[in-house]
Amino acid sequence: MRERIGTNEATFLIVAAMIEVGTLKGARNIVEKVGVDTWLVSPLETIFSLGAIYLLTALVMKFPDLDLVGFSRRLVGKWLAWLLGLIVLVYWVGLTAEVGRVTADTIKSSLLSHTPDAVVLSSYLLVAAYLAGKGLEPLARASIIIVIFTLPITLLLFALVIPRIHLDNFLPILPHGPWPVIKLALWRISNAEEMSLFLILVPFLKEPRRAWRAASYGFLTVMAVAITIITTCQGVLGVDQLKYTLIPGLTVTQLAEFAGAFIERISLIFISVWIILVFPTASALLWASSYLLGRLLNLKDYKMLAFYQLPVVYYLAWRPGNPFEVKRFFFFLQPLGLVVLVGIPSLLYLVALFRCRAR
């Protein structure tokens, strides 16, 4: 019997899956491209990405009882459907490897500096695979608990540094015109990576017709967190310091102060909470890639595939020689993300429209 989750559970799953260590580095990645206009990119990115998410959910809601393999076979035939599924599978495996490597590097540098890199990475992946192997329902329930526990603490820490924001760090506005900001916001549609989970998630929903609601609510929650972090980082650190800060979100939380409290190294509390929050990211991707691989190979029991993928994921995660090479090595995920989030849904949606008109 297929597992089922509610609309709210799907929303929490998406929130937990989308928030990752990369969110803490977002400000640095953006400031390298647009400088002082960093704070303008994410609001535009939100609008553009919502358009892509609407298209994706509109497609999958046309086939509420089918996943990507099922409805693509109906629309474009068995072999092209298999190819599209393979592209999505490669994307999810690559994302899992990137998330694993970035998370392991963050844990290593901030919490476990004397622990071998291989131990940190393998431990993270094994725990993520264990949660993925339990299935979608336990993963969704764990996401609810994790988000409710960790997200308020995270936002509180960033709220505590708001008095340190300097408005001069946001000026001048658009010194190079709007086009660089618009272009980067369009390119960053690919950062909504985990929204691609809806290509297979809808048949698992108790109310498939509410997929758009689950997707949009989850995405807007994540972007509210991302905008808070990015804007705070720019306002506190400024553009020049932001360019040379490896993890701006972590640096900013070191400035947080609790009135009347005597807590030392608040940043360690923050990063510990954040690591808990990002576990569902790798788990959700491992679950999704396991399910999709099982569908492509016509396997009934797919859950253990989460563990069988780990050697490939570990190998890809370990390929970059140092943390500074990670972004360059996994750069292919951004254009591939646009293919998965925009290209494939657009193609299949157009085919579905033409087929409906032909009837």
UniProtKB/TrEMBL annotation:
Taxonomically, the superkingdom here is Bacteria
Record flagged with keyword Acyltransferase = no
- What biological-process GO terms show up in the record? spore germination
Protein source organism: Neomoorella thermoacetica (Clostridium thermoaceticum)
Keyword Signal recorded? no
Q: Which family does it belong to?
A: Belongs to the amino acid-polyamine-organocation (APC) superfamily. Spore germination protein (SGP) (TC 2.A.3.9) family.
The UniProt keyword set, sorted, is: Germination, Membrane, Transmembrane, Transmembrane helix, Transport
The signal sequence is none
Q: Which residues cross the membrane?
A: 46-63, 75-94, 114-132, 144-165, 217-237, 266-289, 301-317, 329-354
Tell me what topology the record assigns in the membrane. Answer: Multi-pass membrane protein
Gene Ontology CC terms, in alphabetical order? membrane
State the compartments where it is located.
Membrane
Question: Which PANTHER family does UniProt cross-reference here?
Answer: SPORE GERMINATION PROTEIN A2
Report what the protein is called: Spore germination protein YndE
Q: Predominant location of this chain?
A: membrane
Return any one Pfam family short name.
Spore_permease
